[in-house]
Write a sequence for this structure.
């Protein structure tokens, strides 16, 4: 059942190669992230916080899960934040912020939701690998994420060059999703600084019914 | 509103420091992960796959989201996999596998659910930083995850030594959650090899109604 | 703060009027449900069960929750059933069945998802008040549900005639949602009979980790 | 494959019998609901609204879905409302209100969560068929719901007497769940009156990104 490429490898060796490849990709990706785009994302969020605007996070599949992890931290920071698809999703108004996450920028439900958000006057910020995608084109702000996404192929060459990774070590959108998670968790630190929040402040807002 | 520690830093500099600290932590964590524990986790999952047993993923908060991201990949690999708290959760039977994720190992709902799982004869595999925690103690198998978790303090010293990170650069369970995600995505690669699956196989099982 | 219409009512009296109006609506709705449409819905589900096809339930908001309640029972009956928006959603193939629930038949995300489902060859069954809606038009089978839906107005007249209900006693899609829940739970009984299942069979598949 | 009890019935006849039995049960249940308990539930919610307190809805399985449907309406009414198990769940403080739904009053995760809620000073309101259950005993307020629940047996006799229903026409917790939904939707009408809200007010807060 083994494919040729795995022959001769010990068990767990693939685990280690994959782990090393993913973490190298994450580390190298930092140089490919635009300071300016991050600054604009942070500014947009800080303004929403100060103006009492809502933030709605949109994403499908694993990108949606990464978005939820970010939404939780925004709640810990004191934001009025919501996740599309959950029970509690309020009406959006002009000035509210939508964070849309899609590696390909073509996920239908995400594009549809972002279009509706635009039509009610919300600001759409996209995290995507493809600024020229349907999602990218309708966005007010794009944070371009390095990643080998589900549908990319031209991007594959760069990924391989960069880290020598090949597909089974990080299938489908894995690199996009993990890199986005690290980026958004680093945005949380930037927001803590900008909003003057300590870890203790976050802990106070952390759900105490889970612990 | 700025705290002393942030003085003199440019905007986005904190983002970059946080990103660098997190990715360094991920990279260094590999040496602190037990080959043997990973091998046992993979063996347990491969056996469940071959025997047609169910896998149920349990976790609260961001750990639960990381668990869901893993569950999605297990589905792409062809597992009968479920997530506690979602609509479709079947009855567990002896031989079914529960993957429980909790940095502290003390999250009440996770411990309660793991106890019930044990009582119906399921095998409980825990990913936690604290093997001596209530969750750890009731588990059949523990994969110890390096991490500075929500409730740790004795662990903090080691974390600082290791990477010079301090709390606002990765608040609460951030390091545990991201490291667990990288570990589980690397387990996916190992499983692809063990089960003879290609990325194309995964793509075929990926929800086509999202794209 | 009280509106004129409430003047002179005791506390809890509105509760009782609402309860009576809703339950009367439910009871009267039975005469407006098509035997033939129910029979076709049941046949479609029985065929999916016998052929090992997947069933995917789609709905937004409270309609989506009613859909999930039905999906749970389908799982208890032994169906391969999934809910759009949850973690575990597999690829759909020709012959798989989509159950789409939308009172107005115009909920964007539901229509988009149903379109995609059609494009991959799935059979789309809609529960809606408006057969001429975008959702209705693309469906292979429609079960028309009596209801005063979010966007209806011409329908209001009939509703008032039928039961003398007025809006605050069942705001927005309330009547649609509850009636749909009763219909689908009655479909469950029909399915139990058709598939030869007892309550004991359902109990065996009920999540034992919740109890 | 047909059981004796179904012999001689036409297709769809069971659907109709089940629908009639369920709707009769709902209608008759009104006389078994305590005005005083409803009044206290409404008062508790109105006070939470006026004092800016949070409301957290807790439930497992289909009871949890009914709870979510209620939570959505509370959001439409302007409450700060959350659902346990979703991404956005804040810390609870004294004076916050927990609505716990469990027919049997013994669902482990619900009882555990309610215990934690009590320990942080929240007010626990339970909707259950069994006031003497573990959930009932720890609650500050109980709304007793007529219902034949998953684990009941002594209750069965009353149910049969009342409406002549027998199990396959409403298996497991069906009657509890639907009756609870009708009760909570009627509470919504009472709250509209008490808080001076119109359907138009609700519509304004309804998620516009779904439509």
């Amino acid at each position: 059942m083994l494919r040729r490429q795995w022959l001769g490898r010990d068990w767990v060796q693939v685990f280690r190669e994959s782990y090393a490849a993913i973490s190298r990709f994450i580390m190298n990706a930092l140089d490919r992230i635009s300071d300016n785009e991050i600054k604009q994302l942070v500014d947009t969020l800080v303004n929403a916080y100060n103006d009492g605007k809502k933030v709605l996070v949109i994403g499908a599949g694993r990108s949606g899960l990464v978005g939820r992890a970010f939404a939780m931290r925004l709640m810990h920071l004191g934001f009025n934040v919501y996740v599309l698809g959950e029970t509690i999703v309020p009406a959006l108004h002009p000035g509210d912020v939508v964070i849309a996450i899609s590696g390909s920028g073509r996920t239908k439900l995400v594009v549809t939701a972002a279009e509706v958000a635009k039509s009610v006057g919300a600001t759409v910020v996209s995290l995507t690998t493809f600024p020229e995608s349907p999602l990218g084109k309708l966005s007010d702000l794009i944070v371009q994420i390095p990643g080998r996404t589900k549908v990319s192929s031209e991007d594959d060459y760069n990924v391989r060059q960069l880290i020598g990774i090949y597909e089974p070590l990080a299938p489908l959108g894995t690199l996009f999703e993990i890199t986005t998670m690290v980026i958004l968790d680093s945005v949380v630190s930037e927001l803590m600084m900008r909003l003057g929040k300590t870890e203790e402040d976050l802990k106070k807002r952390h759900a105490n019914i889970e612990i």
About this structure: Residues 174-195 of chain B form the longest helix (22 residues). Chain B touches chain C through 28 residues (CB under 8 Å). The radius of gyration of chain B is 18 Å. The helical segments of chain B are 13-29, 35-50, 61-76, 108-119, 134-138, 154-163, 174-195, 199-205.
